[in-house]
Amino acid sequence: MIRVTGLTVHAGPKQLLAGIDVTIPTGSTTAIVGPNGSGKTTLLRALNGVLTPTGGRVEIDGTDIARRSRRWMAQRVAYVGQRLEPDPSLTIADEVALGALARRGPLAGGGREVDEAVAEALEVVGLADRVTARLAVLSGGELQRVAIARTLVQGAGHVLLDEPTNHLDPRHRLEIFELVRRIAPTAVVVLHDLEFATRSCDQVLVLDEGRIIAGGSPHDVLVPATLDPVYQVRTHVLRGPDDVAHFAFTLPLEGQS
Ligand SMILES: Nc1ncnc2c1ncn2[C@@H]1O[C@H](COP(=O)(O)OP(=O)(O)OP(=O)(O)O)[C@@H](O)[C@H]1O
User: Fold this and answer.
1) Between 181 and 36, where is the model more confident?
2) Which residue's CA is the closest to the ligand 1 atom numbered 25?
């Protein structure tokens, strides 16, 4: 479980997050949505302990992360950022094995156990036949799947993903969410794609100007009354053949806000 209390983050005089309170229950998938610049990545990075808050705290399974080492964090939390910039000279297998390094430390060594975990993770993400390919030649979607495989090998109970479907085609987008639900007991996912938030998440948090202005089930939160003022659009919710909500947006007519 992740518990965030009064979390406030500044960059110099600028306030990026303003007193965030939220609980992310074990076993749930939580989407963070909101306009560009609203603080989604900042919140995710604070959950990962790479930002030092100016107020409040983040607890993982009841422990304040401010008191814990990077290794302690890596054993519990895996992070896949928005910009994937892996070393292009590494192979897929090298990169995925870094998940074990994060968890166990450089002195623990590799060995058969790590090789097996890497092979298994690449099987899960559909890259088993590309083990020796260099990262330099991979497409954006393939890199995304490599990053997910690395989190599998890291074996952390909490996975934080920043826009994981960015580079993916429709089939892989659908699959990645199945995968996230399968691999991570607890996941927090920054998304612009509201349909995916509805399809795959238990809880949605709407962030605006560093504050959570709505939180709850996708059905309750992803409605025009919440979304229109936040995104400054008119939201149209359509039901698809699978009964999943699909969203269409139009600019407000003149005189409407
Ligand atoms: N280190 C920093 N110094 C100054 N401003 C920062 C810093 N980091 C983030 N910001 C600003 O904080 C705001 C929130 O940034 P953040 O990346 O969290 O937004 P976001 O909601 O993830 O946006 P997007 O949807 O565009 O990815 C932005 O205005 C950004 O420019």
Assistant:
1) 36
2) 36
Q: Whose CA is nearest to atom 30 of ligand 1?
A: 37
Cα–Cα distance measured from residue 63 to residue 75, given in angstroms and rounded to the nearest whole number: 13
- DSSP H or E segment with residue 11: strand 2-11
Atom of ligand 1 nearest to the CA of 39: 18
Tell me the CATH number for domain 1-76+157-231. Answer: 3.40.50.300
Domain ranges (residues) in the chain: 1-76+157-231, 79-155
Sign of the CA dihedral 208, 196, 203, 175? negative
Residue with CA closest to ligand 1 atom 17: 41
| pTM for the full predicted model | 0.91
Pocket lining for ligand 1, CB < 6 angstroms: 11, 14, 16, 34, 36-42
